[in-house]
Amino acid sequence: MEQWSFPPKFDPNYLPPSGSRYWFPKRETMPAAEREKAILERLKLVTRYAWDHSPMYRRKWEEAGFHPDQLKSLEDFESRVPVLTKKDLRESQAKTPPFGEYLCVPDSEVYHIHGTSGTTGRPTAFAIGREDWDSIANAHARIMWGMGLRPGDTVFISAIFSLYMGSWGALSGAERLRTKAFPFGAGASGMTARAAMWLDLTRPQGLYATPSFALRLGEVARTEGYDPRQFGLKVMFFSGEPGASVPAVRDRIADMYGARVIDCGSMAEVTPFMNISGSAETDGMLLWQDIVYTEVCDPATFRRVPYGQRGTPVYTHLERTSQPMIRLMSGDLTLWENGPNPCGRTYPRLPQGVFGRIDDMFTIRGENVYPSEVEAVIAKLADYGGEHRIVISRDGTMDELLVRVEASAECVARGDEAQATLRPSTGKALQTLLGLRAKVEIVPPNTFPRTDFKARRVIDDREVFREMNARLQD
Amino acid sequence: MEQWSFPPKFDPNYLPPSGSRYWFPKRETMPAAEREKAILERLKLVTRYAWDHSPMYRRKWEEAGFHPDQLKSLEDFESRVPVLTKKDLRESQAKTPPFGEYLCVPDSEVYHIHGTSGTTGRPTAFAIGREDWDSIANAHARIMWGMGLRPGDTVFISAIFSLYMGSWGALSGAERLRTKAFPFGAGASGMTARAAMWLDLTRPQGLYATPSFALRLGEVARTEGYDPRQFGLKVMFFSGEPGASVPAVRDRIADMYGARVIDCGSMAEVTPFMNISGSAETDGMLLWQDIVYTEVCDPATFRRVPYGQRGTPVYTHLERTSQPMIRLMSGDLTLWENGPNPCGRTYPRLPQGVFGRIDDMFTIRGENVYPSEVEAVIAKLADYGGEHRIVISRDGTMDELLVRVEASAECVARGDEAQATLRPSTGKALQTLLGLRAKVEIVPPNTFPRTDFKARRVIDDREVFREMNARLQD
Asked: Is the pTM of this model over 0.90?
């Protein structure tokens, strides 16, 4: 039966009728305004719960002058409740190790421990309660049902099982959805070729991975003599990287495997992290607001920006009791919309997924520019060779933007004229689509190195200018 | 409540009284003869179930002239039911992919897929049913309770989460036992140092790993500035390698961490693989016969050998419905005993754990010799340098055994006389303890290379002799 309460209490044996597009039809398709009223009621319960159980929240809210009784509207929520940062979590855990002053269930109720990688300083430990684990599994099963996966399907999970929450979250959903879960993992030597062999042996309907790994797996599979399309995959869902919402990457994976490619995933702290996820019929990512209430906010004021605008997602759990996140600031960058969705769900949508970090933003002649926007424009050019660099410099007192763009091998083969055309067409596209005046330099194919990780595409030369200027003034 | 039936139906909320040494006191401490009567009844049900649900078993048994109705005693079982080999499983899966003609539940009931590594040919897929997963978790929780782990303890699992069943089995037990499960994993670069950091942060009571990894982790922890004893571990349990029953390895780990070291683990196919496992009070491994009925058999006849003798374990599931193994031949080598156990459980015991493979055996002058026996004798010599080689050759028509033994650095430092004594004392020990006449050569410390994997210590030169002889007769 369809349920919505806090704390959540889901029927572990519930499954929707097999013909249903939705796991919880009412919650997924109710009018948005009606849902927002219900969310407000949940927020009252969740903030009261945190006030009663978490010294961290109580202290933080007392300092900000907020009390759960003050909550009468979503505007109260965004204006009165201060945002929480990852730094707050780290500090709370340093003070009260290992789980911090926001573990709101008895220690004995902790079911799983996971954590952040801790590559930059003190890691954060995730303590997930037994009942929360079931709620997470239910949420993920719901969303995976929405992707088109069904009980009895095989779901192959090929991302590392360790601290990384992605694999564990996908597994919990696959288990609850009553699929055959194949937690294959990744990360050790020789596993990619073996993954290809097992895909061939077991012919799963679903695959979870990171986009980079799916591309590599497809290439390794071909080297091993398999055609990835013959694996018969129906749905491939991704998190951990923004790739699956980047049209070029998404289409390449879809074409390689002949499968539907779906983007999902907010933050490990937010688990059920599939709270932002596409569906079988809707591209981009939906905000499953009844699971995690998401506000796309101005990164300065942390008030919601209007639909159609860019901002940073701020997340609030509506179904977690063990380490509930209330207004956790992501620092990610997205744009939200509120049109009708092909799948009929009445959730806001992120048409381009999560496409950057707010701290990637640079300012040129007073305009805020995100590298992802420049990339989106350039990637559409027919003669683009696949890599580029953005160089910001200063000519006298003016910021100057130089975009160095690789031509494609085909463009070079077509001769000088094709290359000569690429330069002005790139400049015009940047001007038209971003209102950005930039110098453009066309460089030969493969000028810039490729990486499996995040490419550093922005070079800010103004620093050199500033340093020089500072030295002259000494 | 304590339960024993087939198919099993365990109460998912059962926990023993906190002061109890046993999870299921009756099943664990009942007189062995009474248990054997009950096992016979279970075997009747299990064989009938397999006959009804598995074309593979039915065909195999029909060929051998066995029918479940014939089962009146454990002697009937061992004399009438043919053993099953890993080759049988591979062939059945090749014929009926992916799970073979011994998946005895509907495909839609499969909960998890795992498999063998498949490094040598076609891998075997494990399809574990939803109810079996619960039974496995119950069995492992029972056995981990017997190790001294308790609800609320933290259990750190540091072995790879992939095809390898060890980690998944330990996790299922930790979850069912209501510990805080920390599935950290292993296998990717940089994880060992991070494991040390997390052990320091979370101070778990239990740790699961392979013995080699525990040794490496301890060394890395020291390099990173931690004292492994400060992690506060209480119980370390191991599978995947025989090390934890080898006194020298066991004691080194116990000393390094200041924890109780417990050996467990039969075969992935047998999962619940902790069916052979030590306990908080009993060294070596107990055969938890009411979970998996284990016969230690003569590897030629597959009839049980008397207690006190060596043989190969043959396993029969009493609590699995999805891919039940009935008389699965392990090919491992062990010795079983049936004295009273310090923990009071009335199970047979493997005092030296599983110490080799039957196919490691060689024959010298008509006597069967296992390399592990030679190793056990040599490892006890005070002046042993840590490595040795066994060379089998032929002098005329007689097999000759040469054992090349490294002297320790201390022995060399003490001078010629100490070294001169080592040779006859080694020969005498082999003669006295194994009845084995061998030539002994003492070599300097570090003559032989070390390996993280299984060392190849036996060199059979008779092949050269045989080939030469064959050529002369052509």
From this structure: no
A195 and A164 in one domain? Answer: yes
Radius of gyration of chain A (CA): 24
Among candidate residues A330, A355, A380, the one where a domain is terminated: A355
Q: What does the pLDDT read at residue A377?
A: 86
| pLDDT (tens digit per residue) in B262-321 | 999 999 999 999 999 999 999 999 999 999 999 999 988 999 999 999 999 999 999 999
Q: Which of B355, B372, B387 is the last residue of a domain?
A: B355
A110 contacts in B (CB within 8 Å)?
180
CB–CB contact B187 A188 (8 Å): yes
Q: Are residues B128 and B234 in the same domain?
A: yes
Which residue from B minimizes the CA distance to A163? B184
Is the Cβ of A198 closer than 8 Å to some Cβ of chain B?
yes
Query: Same structural domain for residues A376 and A298?
Result: no
Helix (H, G, I), strand (E, B) or coil at B305: coil
Report which of A54, A111, A110, A114 is spatially closest to residue A84, judged by C-alpha positions.
Answer: A54
| B184 contacts on A by Cβ (under 8 Å) | 162-163
The ipTM assigned to this model is 0.86
The CATH number assigned to the domain holding A459 equals: 3.30.300.30
- What b/e readout covers A168-203, taking b as 16+ CB neighbours within 10 angstroms? bbbbbbbbbbbbbbbbbbbbbeebbebbbbbbbbbe
- Which position has the higher pLDDT, A47 or B211? A47
Predicted confidence band of residue B244 (pLDDT cuts 50, 70, 90): confident
Do A287 and A415 sit in the same domain of this protein? no
Closest CA to A422 of A372, A388, A449, A373: A388
Closest Cα of chain B to A202: distance in Å? 6
- How sure is the predictor about A469, in pLDDT bands with cuts at 50, 70 and 90? low
Identity of the residue numbered A389: R
- Backbone φ and ψ for A236, nearest 5 degrees, come out as -120, 125
Q: Look up tokens 């919402």; give the residue.
A: A245
| More confident site: B416 or B204 | B204
Query: Above pLDDT 70, what percent of chain A?
Result: 95
Q: What CATH number does the domain containing A196 carry?
A: 3.40.50.12780
Q: Is A369 on the interface with B (CB under 8 A)?
A: no
Mean of all residue pLDDT scores within chain A = 92
Q: Same domain for B193 and B239? A: yes
Report residue A86 as tokens. 């990852």
Predicted confidence (pLDDT) at residue B121 exceeds the cutoff of 80: no
Q: Which residues of B15-48 are buried (b: 16+ CB within 10 A; e: fewer)?
A: eeeeeebbbbeebbbbeeeebeeebbebbbebbe
Residues A182, A330, single domain; the answer is yes
Range of the domain at A297: 1-355
> From its phi and psi, is residue B308 left (phi > 0), alpha (psi between -120 and 50) or beta?
left
> A224 touching B, CB under 8 A?
no
Evaluate if residue B453 carries a pLDDT over 50.
Answer: no
Q: Assign residue B395 a region: left if phi > 0, alpha if psi is -120 to 50, beta otherwise? A: beta
Tokens standing for residue B455: 């060392």
Q: Over range A196-216, report the average pLDDT.
A: 94
| Residues A406, A384 contacting (CB under 8 angstroms) | yes
Do A403 and A444 share a domain, yes or no?
yes
Structural domains of chain A, count: 2
pLDDT exceeds cutoff 80 at A84: yes
**Positive/negative CA dihedral, A251, A252, A253, A259:** positive
Q: Are B319 and B272 in contact (CB under 8 A)?
A: yes
- Determine the pLDDT at residue A356: 83
Indicate whether B307 and B439 sit together in one domain: no
- Give the pLDDT confidence score for residue A453 in this predicted structure: 44
Render pLDDT for B162-186 as a digit per residue (tens, 0 to 9): 998 999 999 999 999 999 999 999 8
- Amino acid (1-letter code) at residue A289: Q
